[in-house]
Every structure is written in C-alpha cells, then in structure tokens.
Amino acid sequence: MQFLIHNIDYFLGFIIYSFLGWIVESAGRTMLEKRGFVNSGFLHNPFIPIYGVGAIIIILLNQPLLPIALPLRILIFTIICTALEYLTGLAFEAIFKIKLWDYTKQKFNIHGRICLFNSFLWAILIGFFILLIRPNVDRLIIGRLAFEAKYYIALVLLAVILFDTLISTLELKSTALFLNQLLVKYNSLTVSMMGSLSKKIRNRFFHIFPNIEKIFTGRFMLGFLDLFKVRQREPELRRISQIINQPPLVQAAMDPAYVDAVQDLLAHDVVKQMTEYPHHDQTTLAHSLVVSQVSFQLAKKFKADARSTARGALLHDLFLYSWRDHQGISHVVNHPKIALANAQKHFQLNEVETDIILKHMWPLCRRFFRYREAFIVSMVDKIVATKEAIAMLNQFINQKMN
Ligand SMILES: [Fe+2]
Ligand SMILES: [Fe+2]
Question: Are residues 254 and 166 both part of a single domain?
C-alpha cells in the first residue's frame, strides 16, 4: 500500500493510459474491420494494460533522456514498445498456446508478432503522447485531483483490472483447452456437429482476435493428414462417436488410399489458402474436404476412378475469394471456370479431374458430364452444400432468437 501511495501518479497514469489505449484501438478496429463494435483487448472492461505499461515506461525514461533530440527519443521509445508487443505476443503463445494476433502477411514482420508498419503507427502515437496527451492528462486530470481522490480511484480501478485479468485468463485458458480438445477429436466431427460447435466457438476472444479462429481452422484441417495418430486414436474415436451417437463422417480419413490420393494437394500452399474463405457455414477447404471424402467412398463403391474423384472434388471450389463479396449469379456460374484455372496453374490435372471441377455446378453449366466421377462429385456437392446451408440458416435463426 505504501508503494501505491508513493507512486500514486504513476498508478493513475497507468489506468488512464490503459483506458485511452482501449479507446484508440477499439475505435480504430471498429472502423477498419467493419464487424460491428470490437471491444479490443484481452479484458472485459475498457482497459488495455499494454498501453498503460508502455506509457509508464515512456514517462519514467523521458526525463533522463531529455537531452536527446525528440525524434531520436521517439525512435528509442518505439523500439521499446515494439519489444513489449513482441514479448506480450510471445507470452500469450507460451502460456495459452494461442496466437492472438498475426502479422505474417505484413511485410517486414518478425515471427508474425511485430511488423514495421505497426511500429510506424507506434511512433506516431508516441509522438502525440509526448507532445499532446501526457501534458494535458497531467494538467487536466492528475494535477487537479486531490490525493485522496487519486488514491481511491486508483485502488478501485486497479482491483477491477486485477479481477478482470484473473477472469479473462481463466476464460482464455478454457477457450484454449476447448480448442485443443476439439483438435484431438477433429476426425469424429460431422458437418452438423461443426454447426452446433460453432455456437460454443462464438466466444468473445474470437471476435476480438479473429486470428485464433483462422489459425485453428488451418490446424484443424491440416491435422487431418496425421494418419498415424488417427489410427492410434481409433478406439477413442469410436467411443466418442458412440457418446454423440453419430458415426464419424470422415471414415475415409482412416483410409490410407484417400490420404495418399490427396496428400500432395493438402500440403500445397494454394489449397491451404482455402481455409481463409468462408463457404456456407464452413471454410472452402472444410466444405471441399467433406465433398472429396464422401465422393471418394462412393467412387470406390461404384468401381470408378476414386483417386481422380478425390483430387477433383478437393479442388472443385478452388476459386480463392469470399463468395460473400461476389454474390449473385456471376459467382454461381463462373466459379467452376475460376477454380479450374487456379487448379491448372498449380497442378497437373487429368481429364476426369478437369471434368469434375468444370461441371460440378451442373445443370447450370450447359454441357453434361463426360465422366461418371464428375456426376458423383456434383451430386455429393449438392447434398453437402444443402446440409451446410441448413446449418447456416439454423445459426442465423439462433442468432436472431438469442
Ligand atoms: Fe462450387
Ligand atoms: Fe462446392
């Protein structure tokens, strides 16, 4: 308590700047991301402590560094704040095994935790902070409040932040646990289960840090290739499927012939990109994997070319854009041609695979299938898409009712 009394201005500053940081970040993200209001930061309450910590470090160092010219000081503080951002990202990854933000797609990034453009934004913010924000906060708030008022405000708000940190840590831990359990059980999931799970996944952390969901979907899909572990988990999978009373849809995941047929495609970056685009209630890759696996099984039953069926089906929706941005008849009619062009650019396709991709939207394309494998995939695609559309409609209704 003595420490709080002697450093009351710093504690109050930490709270004020954590709050101002929350305003800047939430307003910026709400405007830029257009996903509704984003309550930015890890906590429920309107504070982002990393801004408070950064501000206090700058305040403590600014006085001894005053002889240094302002631009150089801003550069030093920018390096310190960037290091703080890196360490925070590293700590979250180490403790929760979750990457909350990811700059890997930005130029000049380090491990996706920091990037040059963001550091440039830090520098602008730090300039504003030194010249405008701090002098005014000192003059208008900290300098005007009586000691008792500062003491009680700091005491109450620090308690709020500490309690919030505890609750949010437990919540994030349980979110991480849930995701990891889901990863272990990924190949017992059916499309409808994915629909009901997505309700649970609609966690506040997914809204604040959309990267978690993206990374998770990617890991979920690529984990599918882990055939040996799948085999070891077979008894467990059977037990889980008994509990949920639904047979595992992806039986083919245990079929080495299926994995052999599509392994190189799934390992390719262009196919991995399909995890980035929503499709019905899934991602394009999740949808295509289901179509591919079911079609593979049917092709085997009908003694057709199961390998080409699996490969063609996996690439049938390789259009690589969000159909929500290209709604209307043009997407419905054109996406098979776009998917074929993308697939031909990266893979050597045979005639069966080409026919599958080009005609999967039959009867919207004029020409009938040349190969029965294309007929199988087109029918399976329609059934799976209908299932996913119903799940999407259910989600929409539930959202409206909640
Ligand atoms: Fe399609
Ligand atoms: Fe499709």
Answer: no
Residue 302 resides in a domain: yes
Q: 353 CA to middle of ligand 2, Å? A: 14
In a domain, 31, yes or no: yes
Return contacts of 115-120, CB within 8 angstroms, 24+ apart.
118/82, 118/85, 119/78, 119/81, 119/82
Domain boundary among 144, 170, 196: 170
Q: How far is the CA of 195 from the centre of ligand 1 (A)?
A: 20
Question: Could you tell me the residue range of the domain that residue 66 belongs to?
Answer: 2-170
Q: Check which CATH number belongs to the domain holding 362 and give it.
A: 1.10.3210
Q: What is the pLDDT of residues 56-107, one digit of tens each?
A: 999 999 989 989 999 999 999 999 999 999 999 888 888 877 677 788 888 8
Cα gap 308→72, rounded to integer Å: 61
Nearest to 80 by CA among 32, 46, 129: 129
Same domain, 12 and 68: yes
Q: How far is the CA of 49 from the centre of ligand 1 (A)?
A: 45
- Ligand lying closest to the C-alpha of residue 332: 1
pTM for the structure as a whole: 0.51
**Are the C-beta atoms of 190 and 80 separated by less than 8 Å?**
no
Note whether 22 and 126 are same-domain residues. yes
